[in-house]
Amino acid sequence: MKNFWSAFLGSLLALFIGGFAFIFLMFLILGATVAAFSLEEITPIDYNTVLKIDLSERIVDNPPQNLWGTLDPFTMRVSRSTSLLSVLNAIEAAAQDERIRGIYLNLSTVSVGMAAMEEIREALSAFKASGKFIISYSNYYSQGTYYLASVADKVYLNPEGALEWRGMSSTLMFFKGTLDKLGIQPEIYRVGEFKSAVEPFMLEKMSPENRRQYEVLLGTIWENIVHEIAASRGLDYSALQSYASALAVENPRKAVELGFIDAIKYSDQVLVELADEVYYDPEKEVDFISLSDYIQALQGRSGRRSSKNRVAVIYAEGDIVDGSAPEGMIGGDDLAAKIAKVRKDDKVKAVVLRVNSPGGSALASEIIWREMTLLQQEKPVVVSMGNYAASGGYYISAPADLILADKHTLTGSIGVFGLMFNIEEACREKLGITTDVAKTNPSGDIGNIFRAALPVERAYIQNSVEDVYRTFVDHVAQGRNLTREQVLDIAGGRVWSGISASRIGLIDGYGRLKDAIALAADRAGISEDYRVITPNEELNQLQQLINSFLSSKIKTRLPGGEMELLQEYRSLMRILEQQGVQARMPYTLYLE
Q1: pLDDT of 14 over the 60 cut
Q2: What would the DSSP string read from start to end of 425-453?
Q3: CA 20 to 30 Å from 460, out of 118, 290, 433, 520?
Q4: For this structure, is 391 an active site residue?
């Protein structure tokens, strides 16, 4: 028996070591393969090349650390994301690149937020000012893709396609009826009449304050979109509004008649026109370069600038949570440590914080705010707001010297809330589950989800929420050089568009990420000699490859309606997963 166990354990150990060695060997082989691909010659760019932009890849603020993308284990396809700054730099470079003749927009699919869409549109408008052409084509234009396309010299649509023009809306889901059926009582604590993140749990429809907030917010963004499209296409603003109200764009022919597009064409006909534009020969085949290939070519050609002066761009993208967080979220401790690191780096002369966050944990926001305050005392700090910089996202922005946003940025939401549930009745009546507790003091089990909160506990928690709100308001007043009363007038949890935020003093002006970088360098006195760095951990190729496997996710492919339910579910779970007081924006808006 002793020999048996010795042999068995020896075989088991050998199997374990052999398996580990095999996996390690496979990673080495894959790493070598990827390295070999990385050494391939960069796509050459000939003269009279057309830059093709379809924006089908996911565009994010934070440059992806994993350059090889994320592997879908079912399809074995690799999905990649591109940084917004890379896209903007590529469009700007193409305007000066004598090899690039023009841009061909193919906008059937675009997955970017409203503010990012605005930044890309401004970059395209600047490209157009260089004298080069932009031609847009799509089988279908949503309002968002048409907003982008409208800057082009020519806009074409498939003869059997469609163009949406109906105005903006946002639909909220309310769960009070469900909670009532289940016997679950929400315990809600909030400050601010507009802090509506908890309304789905206490109401069956929007409060008058929340409805007013939505209508003003949607109205300011929609009015700006209509004005910009009217200016680009030479159309009348009032007419565009009436077309949306009457659903006048019934088909592609009506879109031509009303001036939304220039003609209806098939894609092959557009390619013939492109060839005639580029070569004066419609029989030739157009030489395209994709946006991703052009970005790669620029990176391969430019190399790293040698300047010792650095402007650090730090990205705060995602929900703000306590402690550390995975990619796509903001860990309070993680971001605070990153800010402290650049503060202590003498080579970093100025810092840009790019915020794209609806907020989250109030405590984590406070930890980040403290490091931002220390940083601002030593170096110029400029905040660049993306699609969202609201609630906790605004909390961490307040200490900056300057705050820039896009017109379509959603910001403000200066308010806080706490949310708990009493599931005692639900468990007893629906599941037959009861609980009992032994304690030394009446509130020894405060926060117990199996009983209602005592009056003294409600007062205690509400006081905590109000304390956080007072701190939030004071931070904003200090950072924005406003009185406390001025902040209270625009706080209350109300969300503002960038257009409104500029008027009420929450931001200093409009500007893209590139504008924020230039301003930071100027304030540091290094505008003629600096290079931009991103203080992310630099991973070697093998580490990136391993991360692509470790970060593989099962992708859910759902039709539109079910996808909306999935988004609601994720938003709900982000609220429920948080502990303590939250400074979070109440909703998400999409331009479809």
Answers
A1: no
A2: HHIIIII--------SSTTTTTT-TTSPP
A3: 433
A4: yes
